[in-house]
């Protein structure tokens, strides 16, 4: 995609303050696009309306501004787009790829449910071939699943390198709409990135296995595949993943104690982008950023060393 202006995105879930891992992923997403004169899009991923709020969304915008991570436009939050997702759902329905699934949570995750050796659950297609009479016998609303092909998806990830996944063997037919009518992340993200013209998706390594799921839906909807870069997770010195539970490392606390430049310098140094741990603005850092500088393995960071 050499001659195309890169379009990247921030896709935060407004369920709390950003922690260092979120900041790191947002920083790399921004650097990748801005170092090549591209455009950034912001989108609030608030499908889970119980856990998210417009207040957190506003704080996230302010935190991005404080960090110096600018964006050019914000697309509507996912909670307002179910009418759009309906249209894509109908297209899958027209393609004959959807079926209702009545499995309960305990059926899906019980001891006899099929799991891969790493504990990943593979849906065995239990409800795929139910008759109309069998469907009518359930007195509850179904989730809806899309049939996945027995095919290997290949991702050339900018950090991880070559990654493959066979959706039929390692995932099974995917839920696209839950029984309560809420669309799932995989469908919403594919539609939103596709409609916004996103050319590169940069996010945490924990979402690497989502890339093939989204590539499948992109193919069905006729969206091009974006480039992918799944950045390493940040770990505490004891090997724990930094998370929103580490309250002292969320931006609410950090903003009281350090400057944005100090925070960005520390993250950039830990990630291998600069050789010394010195304060630096995102804008300055963009002049030095190239993907090959970024470390590929987990990044250990003693957040407390920041203050
Ligand atoms: N909303 C997700 C998160 O906050 C990110 C999803 C994505 O980047 O595709 O973890």
Shape: elongated
Residues in helix, %: 25-40%
Low-confidence stretches: none
Measured by DSSP, the beta-strand proportion falls in: 15-25%
Count of individual beta strands = 12
Order of adjacent strands in the largest pleated sheet: 1-2-3
Structural description of this entry:
By secondary structure, the protein is of the alpha/beta class. The chain folds into two domains: 7-80 and 196-306, HUPs (Rossmann fold, 3-Layer(aba) Sandwich); 82-187, Alpha-Beta Complex (Glutamyl-tRNA Synthetase, domain 3). The chain has eleven helices and twelve strands. Strands 1-2-3 form a three-stranded parallel β-sheet, covered by helices on one side. A three-stranded antiparallel β-sheet has the order 4-5-8. α7 crosses α8 (210-221). The radius of gyration is 20 Å and the shape is elongated. Glutamic acid is lined by residues 11-13, 45, 189, 203, 207.
Quick recap of the structure?
Helix content is 34%, strand content 16%.
Which helices and strands, and how do they pair?
Elements: E1 7-10, H1 20-34, E2 39-43, H2 54-67, E3 73-75, H3 82-94, E4 98-101, H4 105-109, H5 132-137, E5 143-146, E6 152-157, E7 161-166, H6 167-170, E8 174-177, H7 185-195, E9 200-204, H8 210-221, E10 227-231, E11 234-235, H9 251-257, H10 260-270, H11 282-286, E12 299-300
Parallel strand pairs: 1-2, 2-3, 9-10, 11-12
Antiparallel strand pairs: 4-5, 5-8, 6-7
Glutamic acid binds next to loops.
